[in-house]
Amino acid sequence: MSAILPPPERIWYKHPIDRVEGTWIAIALLWCLIMFFMMVGWHIWGNQNLSTETYRTTPDKFTAKAQAMVDKYTVRTETGDKTPVVAPPPGSDVYMLARLWNFWPILELEKGKTYRLHLTSMDYNHGFSLQPANINIQIVPGFEHVITVTPNQSGTYSVVCNEFCGINHHQMVGRIYIK
Amino acid sequence: MATATTYRTCPRSGLQFESSAEKLMIANAVAAVVFLLIGGILAIGVVLTRWPAIHWLEADTFYQVLTAHGIDMLIFWIIFFEVAILYFASSTLLRCRIATPNIAWAAFALMIIGAVMNNVAVFQGGSSVMMTSYVPMMAAPSFYAGLILFAVGALIACFVFFGTLVVAKRDKTYQGSVPLVTFGAITAAIIAVFTIASGAIILIPTFLMSIGVVKEVDPLVYRTIWWAFGHSSQQINVAAHISVWYLVAAVAFGAKPMSERVSRTAFLLYILFLQLASAHHLLADPGLSTGWKVVNTSYFMYFAVLASMLHGLTVPGAMEVAQRSKGFTKGLFEWLRKAPWSNPTFAGVFISIIGFGFLGGISGVMMGTEQLNMIIHNTIYVPGHFHATVVVGTTLTFMALTYLLIPVLFKREMIAPKMAQWQPYLFGFSMYFFCLVMMGAGTLGVSRRHWDMAFSGNALAYEWPGAAYLMMGLVGIAGIVAIVGGAMYIYITVGSLLWGRRLERGAESPKFTPIPRMAPTVVAQSHGSAGFAAPGTFLLAMVFLVAFVLYYFINWKYLSTLWGLS
Questions:
Q1: Is some CB atom of chain B closer than 8 A to the CB atom of A8?
Q2: Of A94, B34, B230, B361, whose CA is between 20 and 30 Å from A80?
Q3: Under DSSP, is residue A150 helix (H, G, I), strand (E, B) or coil?
Q4: Which residues are CB-neighbours of B201 under 8 A, at least 6 positions away?
Q5: What is the complex's ipTM, to 2 decimals?
Q6: Which of A170, A172, A176, A178 is the best residue to mutate to test the B interface, defined by the most B CB atoms within 10 Å of its own CB?
Q7: pLDDT in tens, B531-540
Q8: How many domains does chain B have?
Q9: Are B350 and B323 in contact (CB under 8 A)?
């Protein structure tokens, strides 16, 4: 008779379904399928899909590649500790490393151009939170994640670390300029 | 273990309690409330620090308090309470003795030792690693050891529950299938076994790493397996609190499930698919394939979403059918208007159902969508979502259940009944608002687990829009109101246990009274309209669906304006 008593019909899976429930099951299932196809369809027709291109890396290997880019394309330095601002040519591989507690270097990219952005962490997990666009990607140490990005607006973007990474986590912020 | 025991029949509810099961339920429920109290005090520190105008605690204290708040609330408060529910759903509802009470006490002791050890580790400093404790960031060995001991205790408690089911079957205390609430509790316990096993697989090597035996735990493997523990533990809550919804519908209205088949199949879907939802924590991670992400978080997870959408209909639907058969048949909503709104058990559960569905459910599916995840990952939207599921869903439901249990299990008259009437409204609605403004701030990008959104003193500081500061201020205000609501609950519960008038225990007997066999019910529905037994609930469900569809596509629209990513 009730949810706290054994069902009167011994075989519960033969219990009839009311029309309210039957209708709702059909609607809910249909909606679930639409949501499923949305996700698949966006891979075909959408422009915002997170790349899965990933390589194992080490801090030394990654730093060497980032340093090579910095040596070649640095246009100026900013802030007290002279963080290089790097402007690699469109279509090239650009590197940003996350470490306790900053992002390095500052990038300067062009609007409407495509770049292969390589991300990794030198130490703990970090977060790549691009503001104000609000694009958020996890950075995991030991893995080099390659994301093809096409900035669609010019301006100054900040990269905020949004994965807790220790006592100065809230000081970890980097920058990307889009011309 | 044929030790002598007694069975008492509660004169107020007719429920039968075996004496050792009763003591175990009381012990576990009291331990749960103690951890809720600790977690609630810590919440003051979290809320007042994230309120930008107050920014109360120092950074190191804040991260420490936040770590302890998460673990005490999400793990200790909830799982202690769930163990009490498991014992209730087996021993009390099936009217049998509890299996191996001594082992159940040992499980309780392990859980207490583990919980205390973990808390001590956090408050000694050096273990402010957040609940997720992602490697290679390391906490003290006792941090992991405490969690492992707690988990072993909880696992043993699950097996005591399974053993109790066997006892009931063997002693023939009931006939046919177990009640729906017990069925739901079985789902919770099965998911718990999966969850705890995942936790052990990843926390044991991490513990060994912290004492220097293992050199390295892969950070991505850690994240993957940790979430099989971290997210699945929340699915135990879902199965448990939905069981309580059915329980309260049965007790407050005498409601019977609309269809045992639908409700039980929905619970089975949880066992089959719910754990896969843990994959949605990894949507922004490197190294996992698109196919893996889509299969885990969509195709299969949506069967679990389907199950929740079914429970969301069948619980209020059962209430509606019961109310209509009592004569509240006018229009679509007389059954709801004439519901016992001044009964805190019912009010708490109903506020929980609506908030869990509209706030927790819709946001959860949005977040769990592969591409949409990029606009909220690790923002304060995430705690906004899980406060709607775990606080509005689970905690509020457990609070509502406590009001039912004070006279029945604790045999005390509730003190301050007027305050109890208001408590679910104050706590529930302030939590609704708290979740909404957190999601609002998260939509603007504000980070979770972040001490200083102003980045004071940093040359590259990012300046959040004024709206983000406004939202975080509102988070502070709503959080404080919710904490007051939580304090009222603690006052009423603890006060009733200490000073409430003692109530009659009820007749005791050395033998259990088996559950009598029910007469089969007449199938035809005689109430409702347009051939629908619960038209009001159906309309509510359609409102929910429209909100869901709109919110879902608004987020896609926003996503389409962002940088091209591939």
A1: yes
A2: A94
A3: strand
A4: B225
A5: 0.95
A6: A170
A7: 688 999 999 9
A8: 2
A9: no
> Is residue A34 located within the same domain as residue A58?
no
> CATH number, domain at B128?
1.20.210.10
Q: Please choose, from the candidates B149, B150, B144, the residue with its C-alpha nearest in 3D space to the C-alpha of residue B206.
A: B144
What is the span of the domain harbouring residue A16? 12-45
Cβ atoms of residues B521 and B438 within 8 Å: no
CA distance B249 to chain A (A): 8
d(CA A22, CA B310): 10
Which pLDDT value is given to residue B276? 82
- Residue B382 forms part of a structural domain: no
CA distances from B158 to B31, B80, B530 (A): 17, 12, 45
Q: What is the pLDDT of residues A100-155, one digit of tens each?
A: 999 999 999 999 999 999 999 999 999 999 999 999 999 999 999 999 999 999 99
Please list every residue in chain A whose beta carbon sits closer than 8 Å to the beta carbon of residue B227: none
Q: How far B394 CA sits from the closest chain A CA (Å)?
A: 19
Which residues of chain B have a CB within 8 Å of the CB of A158? 460, 462
Q: Residue B449: is its pLDDT beyond 80?
A: yes
Mean pLDDT of B374-379: 96
Which residues of chain A from 139 to 158 reach within 8 Å of chain B, CB to CB?
139-145, 147-152, 158
Give me the residue from B310, B375, B451 closest to A136, CB to CB: B375
- Which chain B residues contact residue A45 at CB under 8 A? none
pLDDT at residue B63 is higher than 50: yes
Q: Which chain B residues have a beta carbon less than 8 Å from that of A51?
A: 565-566
Residues in chain A, overall count: 179
At which of B513, B528, B559 does a domain end? B513
- Cα(B426)–Cα(B302) distance, rounded to whole angstroms? 33
B354 within some domain: no
For residue B284, give the nearest of A6, A19, A136 by CB distance: A136
For the whole prediction, is pTM greater than 0.80? yes
Cβ-nearest to A3 among B220, B250, B376: B250
Interatomic CA distance for residues A137 and A146, integer angstroms? 11
